Amino acid sequence: MKKIFMILCAVTLIFGMTGSAGAASYTDTYDAGNIYMKGYQSDSWTFDITDYGFNPKTQDVTEATVLLNLTDDSYDWYEVAYLNLEGNTFSWKFLWEVDTGSKSFKIDSLITLSDSGTIDCTLIAVGGDFYFNNATLTAEATTAPVPEPASILLMGAGLIGLIGYNRKRFSKKN
Fold first, then answer.
1. Chain-wide mean pLDDT for the chain?
2. Class assignment of domain 23-142?
């Protein structure tokens, strides 16, 4: 009976110390204001998710996507553009035939974004012409495990049980 009680207290203590780590989503939008782009014209901006609560010291970015919103003026046959993402393994993303709508790009390397919470981007029009409306960064990041009140209560019950058991055992020896 004493062994079962001791095992029960230890299990309660172990479950009481576990917290749950979750994921948080951060979004930052750059409004380009419908910039007309043609002939190697470029526009640069910086996404900063620390403005929205991301903490690079305690969190890591696990996944990130950049979404470009472009409008084709439909005056030429094709448009060509490049998107450069700072610190990306394959930093140049190639867009062939810019149509009206959204283009999504997954960020290959998350080191820069995890270290500082920022990433520099540049969109360059190489051929044809189009309008650059806006860009949106969506990042998923880990959150530190936070013990819940129920977990703390379980841990406290386990500690009280272990203390009570040891006091009872110690008093019987004397």
1. 78
2. mainly beta
Q: What is the pLDDT of residues 69-115, one digit of tens each?
A: 988 877 767 788 888 887 654 456 666 667 777 777 777 667 778 88
DSSP string, 108-126: S--HHHHHHSEEEEEEEEE
Query: At 48, which amino acid appears?
Result: D
Give this prediction's pTM: 0.67
Residue 133 in contact with residue 67, Cβ under 8 Å?
no
Q: What is the DSSP string of 135-159?
A: EEEEEEEE---B--HHHHHHHHHHH
Q: What is the Cα–Cα distance from 121 to 90, expressed in whole angstroms?
A: 13
Residue 53: what residue type? G
All structural domains of the chain with their residue ranges: 2-18+149-173, 23-142
Q: How far is 21 from 142, CA to CA, in rounded Å? A: 7
Instruction: Report CA torsion sign: 72, 77, 83, 89.
Output: positive
Which residue's structure tokens are 């009481």?
A: 16
Q: Which amino acid is at 73?
A: D
| Unique residue bearing structure tokens 């790009």 | 105
